[in-house]
Amino acid sequence: MTFKEDKKMPIIPIIEVKNLLKKFDIRQGISKIISKSNGNNVFAVNGVTFKIQKGKTIGLIGESGIGKTTLINIILGLMQPTNGNIYVDGINIFENIKSWQSQIGYVPQNIYLSDDTIKKNIALLCQRKKLTLLQ
């Protein structure tokens, strides 16, 4: 039995972001942003497309206000894009967002936890934000 030389199989991306767009109406309190404005809209994310292959790690870098946090919030399912899709193994995450969110974790650049109990961390947050902690 002889075998022909194997062709490399294409790697299927685990996450594929296609043409993401997130715009905000500046009449809703974002009127201070001028550089990315288009009429009454501000584009926080505009046409973002990329793939993350299985086992790979990426980092987002850029100037303050360029849309990194908005992009992450969309990928985490915390915010809906105005347009575009995010696929994981070919499935749109917004078709079953709870399932997607149950499979991911996120550690932000700055975390605000002290080396203490969860209750004391929540109390600290409430104190900083001037909120009332209900027992």
Short description:
This protein has 135 residues and is an alpha+beta fold. It has 3 helices and 5 strands, in the order βββαββαα.
Q: What topology does this entry show?
A:
Elements: E1 15-25, E2 37-38, E3 41-52, H1 68-75, E4 83-88, E5 91-92, H2 97-101, H3 118-129
Antiparallel strand pairs: 1-3, 1-4, 2-3, 4-5
Spatial gap, N to C terminus: 74 Å
Order of helices and strands: EEEHEEHH
- What integer is the average pLDDT? 80
Provide the CATH superfamily of the domain at 15-101: P-loop containing nucleotide triphosphate hydrolases
Task: Note the overall shape.
Answer: globular
Query: What structural class do you assign from the helix and strand content?
Result: alpha+beta
Give me the side-by-side strand order of the main sheet: 2-3-1-4-5
Total beta strands: 5
Strand content: 15-25%
Q: How is the biggest beta sheet arranged?
A: 5 strands, antiparallel
The CATH class of the domain at 15-101: Alpha Beta
Helix content: 10-25%
- Tell me the radius of gyration: 20 Å
CATH architecture of the domain at 15-101: 3-Layer(aba) Sandwich
- The tally of helices reads 3
CATH topology of the domain at 15-101: Rossmann fold
Low-confidence stretches: none
